[in-house]
Amino acid sequence: MDKEGLISEFSYRSSRSGGKGGQNVNKVETKVEARFDVAASVALTEEEKEYLLEKLAGKISAEGILAVTNQTERSQLANKEKAMQKLLRLIEKALIKPKKRKKAPVPPEVKAARLEAKRRQAEKKAGRQPVKLHRNSAE
């Protein structure tokens, strides 16, 4: 994945932000939405695109656009920077493939302890059985 090429493919939209800011909120567009068209990306390989589309299916729109917004700061530039970082982190995290778990063999001591516990439990249960008297047929 080419980080610089990826950042250059981001597009931004601004709008008026809600929340604190007083009169500033009513006249300045500080909320920034960073957008990324996954299918049209040149910075990603076909395999990476497919993996992203699968992994982030819930966050990608019907048009194939991945978008994040930021409105925490009072300046558009700071919000743009944070939205860009958020989108980049989201993509990088989605492209990390989890390693396959290798099943470890059960240690012999653990097997022996389990069998010993089973043997003790069987003896305990056998001791609870009613005593059976054997009659000799020769008498």
State the main characteristics.
139 residues, Double Stranded RNA Binding Domain, three-stranded antiparallel β-sheet, 5 helices
Q: What does this molecule look like?
A:
This protein has 139 residues and is an alpha+beta fold. The chain has a domain at 3-94: Double Stranded RNA Binding Domain, CATH 3.30.160.20. Helices cover 43% and strands 13% of the residues. It contains five helices and three strands. The protein has helices at residues 3-8, 23-27, 46-55, 76-94, 108-127, and strands at residues 11-15, 31-37, 65-70. The chain has a three-stranded antiparallel sheet with strand order 1-2-3. The longest helix has 20 residues, at 108-127. The chain is elongated and about 105 Å long. The mean pLDDT is 87.
Short description:
The chain has 139 residues and is α+β, with helices and mostly antiparallel strands. The chain has helices at residues 3-8, 23-27, 46-55, 76-94, 108-127; strands at residues 11-15, 31-37, 65-70. It has a three-stranded antiparallel beta sheet with strand order 1-2-3.
